[in-house]
Design goal:
Strand content: 5-15%
Distance between the termini: 36 Å
Helix content: 40-55%
Largest sheet: 5 strands, parallel
Shape: elongated
Radius of gyration: 20 Å
Number of strands: 5
Order of helices and strands: HHHHEHHEHEHEHEH
Number of helices: 10
Length: 264
């Protein structure tokens, strides 16, 4: 099921779909289906322009990022949960050095929170969320190494290395943390991923305080075209992944909310 879900996710990414339509158009032209081929190429070109240059992708990402504002920090925190996704485990393993990606702010945020709340537990949630990997180097292990390098005592860091999806992050984190009633737990993940993460943690009966990081958008991004098609496609792919993930979790009964919001 995990492999199938990853295959479906890849098939539904706008950038892949646009390329697929263009390839079909070229094949149709080569097979002397001129009208059909030109039609497919026109559609692919239009979609490429919309997804790559228009503010559609940033707008969809911004709607997710704005869902949970920065929290009012409590006086005490029992624990901090950081979701995996900041470490490229393939490059890290092959190069012998921890390689981070655009979600690296999660690492620095947890390091800062660890200093602010010296008694809080630190739980890193994330296994090997790739279908082609047979390596034992997990996302949580990469995060642990970076946090230790940043001065966080290794004894404070707990690893949850079974989860491969956001929903599994929530289930396995709840099992590992065993939060007690009345405790404050912070959830650190990218702002665009926070709605899906919150929906999952609520379904797992793990009350958390959202602590969003890794913002990608700003209001003025909606008033002008994206600078490059590559950037625009990245925004559109991120938005499609998260919005379709929210819908899929709800339809399959994993969560009870399509788009969760803050609770009083």
């Amino acid at each position: 099921m995990f492999f199938l879900s990853k295959l479906i996710q890849s098939a539904l990414l706008p950038s892949n779909d646009i390329a697929f339509l263009a390839i079909l158009g070229v094949l149709a032209l080569l097979l002397w289906r001129k009208g059909f081929g030109i039609g497919l190429l026109v559609v692919a070109t239009f979609l490429l322009a919309v997804a790559g240059w228009s503010p559609l992708g940033p707008a969809l990402v911004m709607a997710l990022e704005d869902r949970f504002p920065a929290p009012q920090m409590p006086a005490s925190v029992a624990g901090i949960v950081m979701l995996g996704g900041a470490v490229d485990i393939h490059i890290s393993e092959d190069r012998g050095s921890v390689a981070v990606n655009d979600n690296a702010e999660r690492i620095f945020a947890v390091a800062a929170l660890a200093r602010r709340y010296p008694d809080a537990r630190i739980l890193l949630s994330g296994g090997i969320a790739h279908t082609t990997s047979d390596q034992a180097y997990s996302e949580s292990e990469g995060g642990r190494r970076l946090l230790v390098d940043l001065g966080v005592p290794e004894a404070r860091i707990e690893l949850e290395e079974r989860s491969r999806t956001t929903f599994e992050n929530a289930i396995e984190s709840a099992a590992a943390a065993k939060p007690r009633p009345g405790e404050n737990w912070l959830l650190v993940t990218s702002a665009y991923n926070m709605p899906r993460a919150v929906a999952s943690f609520r379904a797992a009966n793990f009350p958390i305080i959202p602590y969003p990081v890794d913002y990608r958008t700003r209001p003025k991004d909606l008033r002008r075209p994206v600078s490059t098609i590559a950037n625009g496609l990245e925004f559109t792919d991120i938005a499609a992944h998260e919005w379709l993930g929210l819908l899929a979790y709800r339809v399959t009964g994993k969560t009870t909310e399509i788009l969760p919001g803050p609770r009083e």
